[in-house]
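Quick start: read one record
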Amino acid sequence: MAKGPGQRKEMRGGSMSSGDKKDLPKAKLSAENFRRSFKLFDYLGRQKWQFVLGMVFLGLSAGVGLYFPMAAGKLLGVFGDDTTPKDILKNSLQEIGLTLLVLLVAQGIFSFGRVYLFSLVTESILKGLRTDAFSKLVQMPMSFFSKSQTAELSSRIATDVNVIQEAFTINIAEVIRQTIVGIGGFIIIIIKVDWAIAQWFVYIIPPIIVVAILYSRRIRKYSKDMQEKIAQSNVIVNEALTGISSVKSFTNEFFEISRYTKNTEDIRKFGIKFGVLRGVFFTFVMTVIFGAIFFILYKMTELKVDDVITPEEFGQFLMLSLFVAGSLGGLPGQIGSIQQALGATDRVFEIINGDHESINLKSQSTPAKRFKGDIEFKDVYFTYPTRVDYEVLKKVSFKINSGETMALVGSSGSGKSTIASLVLRFYEIGGGEFIIDGKKASDYDLTEFREQMAIVPQDVLLFGGSIKENILYGKPTATEAEVVEAARKANALEFIESFPDKFETIVGDRGIQLSGGQRQRVAIARAVLKDPSILILDEATSSLDSESERLVQEALDKLMVGRTSIVIAHRLSTIKNADKIVVLHKGEVTEAGTHKELIKNESGLYYKLSKMQFDTVSSLV
């Protein structure tokens, strides 16, 4: 059901909008941050010469950007010259026009070369960065994922890398080019142009630019707040549509509409305030900035009338002023983007340089030495990294011999699933000993260790491909005949063959196109194909109807033959034939034995749980 106000947690999607990019952290422009970012160049490889050539094109482009206004300014010198014969003036005009044309063509070539080469360099960097980031991400330990949001991690691979891409392709080059043009032009104005003209630029333009920068920062903050409010409305829509069946079954349509309407009203009010702020900014731009430009033009015209400056000086200063003002004014936005890119780089390298599991990424076609399957816990205790003050397991001890089935029984939170996670080495034990075949589990290569394991969970996650692809996940090198045989052993062949596309049937996102029982049997087929030494069944039949449970249980019974199996079950009727039953309560082993042994202890927890379940079943019958 949809939760009421104050009870909801914000949901995030896997992708981020342009508004989300504004929320990315900005790193300070420090030497240390730049030093860390230079690690990106380790991914250049053979493209280093392309980067150097791109920098050459960038320098040439900036040089043309400085020379162009000087050449363009000569045009006014031609128009202001009344003493030179017209034919000579026309020749001068043609020479200037030809020079400007050559400069424009050169600028176009240099700009294209710079963008193209930087794109080649950037894509090479990003390919290695994406591959490394994803590779290290999937090798992170479960403790890392327990402290991180999936959407936030996806963002680091998607949005953060895109921000880095924009910075390398556009922002860094633009900062360098605009800095050269802006500062270089400013110096030329002061040195080359008469101080009677330059003083007005020095006194008026820089202060106006500073005010505009400070005001634009406030606008960006309002823009970010606006995006956050819009994101909140998207959360409401996402939750309502995701849980539409709950909304309708509880007739909460009016509640959801009211909640969304209140949110959109907040957006409207904030949008009006934001509009006023932007209106003031545009008024400032139109009145103050353009007023200052025309005031400088007025003063220059006045100086020209008084013959203090020549028409050519007038034109050169005018063009230089426009280029310098435009370059300096564009720097804050570009620097802000670079700050975002530095922050994004830090976030990506946090994954790449993080502590990850020692996974063997080589081909697994050569099987590791098969385990016998003897498992022993000796006084094992454990706390989760996110709850270090709470002991989940307290000196848990048990032993399973090769080929035996051990069932874990207990109320919710007693530690059953935690033991399954420790057997898979999703987490390392906090103390005691975990022994496999007489050897400490931590002494095994982690890849070799997990190759011996398979788990069939309660909530099966199927990937969005075909049934065949999902079964092959257990053994990617399996033949088609092996896939069919695995499906047969899992009691899945009949329903698979009933589909028009058979094994090529697409299961949909998370396997939504299949029923719960069908998903379970596909997962069992996957486990059959893997042929593990040790099998973990985590309440694999608890959420199924009677017929699906029967088919799944039959398949599980076949799968457990000859393997060491750990079964977690709430339905005690499914584990009556287990070789050993371990009863857990608040992280401690309170009882252990067979069903016949435990049922005799009327003061034990197992007896109480059994009586509760079997009495309930009898009353229903």
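The chain has 20 helices and ten strands.
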